[in-house]
Structure formats: structure tokens, C-alpha cells
Amino acid sequence: MRCRLCDHDCAPAFERMVLHRLTVQYYSCPHCGALQSETPTWLDEAYGSAIAALDTGIVARNLVNQAVVFLLARILGPAGRLVDFGGGTGMLCRLLRDIGFDAYLMDRYADPVFARGFGLTSETAGQAPIAILSCFELFEHLSMPDADLAALFALKPALLVASTKLCDGQGADWPYLVPETGQHVFFYAHRTMETIAASHGYGYVNRGDYHLFLRDPLSPVRRALIRLSLSRPGLLIARLMIAARLDTRFAERDQAQLNRG
Questions:
Q1: Segment-wise mean pLDDT, segments of 10 residues, the chain, 261 residues
Q2: Separation in Å, CA 164 to CA 189, 207, 219
Q3: How far out from the chain centre does Cα 25 lie?
Q4: Nearest to 188 by CA among 3, 62, 16, 41
Q5: Residues 25-39: b if buried by 16+ CB within 10 A, e if exposed
Q6: Rounded (5°) CA angle 208-214-219
Q7: What are the backbone angles phi and psi of residue 55, rounded to the nearest 5°?
Q8: SS3 content of the chain, % helix, strand, coil (to 5)
Q9: pTM for this structure?
Q10: Is CATH 1.20.1560.10 the classification given to domain 11-259?
């Protein structure tokens, strides 16, 4: 099989049962380091519900991601709006708007129940500069990452921040495969992320499960601040700062914007 990211030959890695009934072959790519399922023909079934029942950490994860975006915006300060790609229910978009950010979301599968009226399409997303494009727990869902990532970088965000676990020789028992849902189909090594950044003219910074792709060079001071901020103490401090920013005026602002149509 050819790699769906770099188009090099892949080698069989292992098999897993997907959706409790499909035997699926997984492949490793010796060129870019990625791990991937065979061509996923089961995605319509897998996304019968956009938010999988097994995703029990969705609320806690969005609270953490709110803190991550808050910190990155303060450190990097790029001008423009924030767009959460694959924004699901719109929870992160709502959390960001509730502390004053001009945040929107894009999602082809889910109903943004928490942020209706603030959804963007591929046609409208690029109509204004994007400061931060967030892709939390999204990369592993991309069935055709070469084309899908090209479309994201074509939006020219100052910062694209993603979260996903890196593969590093894991086998068939890796929990992050989540074969019960059938939604995780492509996995990235550190080398894969560097390849993606270079191919789109971005710099790359890794901090745990967070991956930052930056359009402009990052100074050593800001690089150190990012690594310090995206630590457990840094995120706890951010939660306190966020609590101080909560104010009903942001909800009133959004009501007025929605009333204007």
C-alpha cells in the first residue's frame, strides 16, 4: 500500500478488529514514519454519531484546550480570528467566545449546539486572517491527510495547533487505535510532523501531545515560554486567569451579533 501522506510504499504492521466486525490491516511507512489503517471504507458507519460514546473525556479535554489556546494567544499574539477545525458540538468555540475571543468553528459532521451561528465553511473560513487554527484530536481522523492537511495550511493561519498522540513503534494493543469506534485511521511520528511542517513552509514545535506549526520564526524566548506554559503548572495558572475573565458581556455581545444576522 502507498502512504496516504507521502505516497511512499508502506509495510504491513499488524491487524485489528474494527467496529467489532471488520478485520483491518495497519501499515507503517518507513519514509515519513506514519502508521495508518488500510483505506478506511467504513467511515460512514463510524461517523453515524459524530461524537463517539467512548469519548468520555470530551468536557475535560475542551477545558484544557481552552487554556492552551488562551496561553498561546497571549504568548504569540497573532492578529485575526480563531477557528476550531473539527469543532464538534462547538464547546471549545463557546468556551473561547465566553472569555472574549473572536472564535469560530468548522465541522462537516457535527451539529455545533453550543456555538450555532458561528460556524464557517471552507469557502468562508479564508475570508479573514486566521490567527490560530486549532485541530484538537483531529489529525488521527484524517482519512486522506495529504489533501486534508493541504487544505488546512491553505488557510494560512499564523499558528496551527493540533493535539494527537505520536506513534513510536506501538503495536496492535495501542489504546489510541480505538478500533471500537473506527474513527482513528492515521497516526503520526515526530518525523511525520516535521515532514508536514517543512512541506508547507512552517516551523514545528512539539510539547507532549501538542503540535505547533508556526508560519513565522519563533524566538528562543517565546519557544521557552510555550514549553513552560504547556506544562501542568502553566495550565493550572491559565485556568485561574480564565476564571477572572469570565463576564456576561461576552454572551451579550454574541447575542447582539446573532440578532444582526
A1: 97 97 98 97 85 71 96 89 94 95 90 92 88 97 97 96 97 96 97 97 96 95 94 94 87 84 70
A2: 10, 11, 25
A3: 25
A4: 3
A5: ebbbbeebbbbbbbe
A6: 90
A7: -85, 70
A8: 35, 20, 45
A9: 0.92
A10: no
